[in-house]
Amino acid sequence: MNLSTCYQLTEGVAIRPERFGGLVYSYHSRQLYFLHSHELADFVGGLSGEEPLAAALETFRSRRSLSPEAGDGLLRSLAALEKLGLVVAVGD
């Protein structure tokens, strides 16, 4: 993940909060993906494509009082979602 790049959900992808974390649904492929935590679901769902990933992550971490290690976990999960085509860099 490029920390200076802005990211957002791919068009046609939606996140629904669930008791266990969240569900990601792609209307294009009709596939469903599970998110393992509420933090991840909230972070990914809040990516607007308007601020660099580093700033978005720092804002989210500070609002939630999360450790730097938690931020690393969010980045790893976000990278996996990008590989699946569920998250995209703005301008790509």
Automatic annotation (TrEMBL):
InterPro entries: MftB
Domain of life: Bacteria
Descriptive protein name: Mycofactocin biosynthesis chaperone MftB
Species of the source: Defluviicoccus vanus
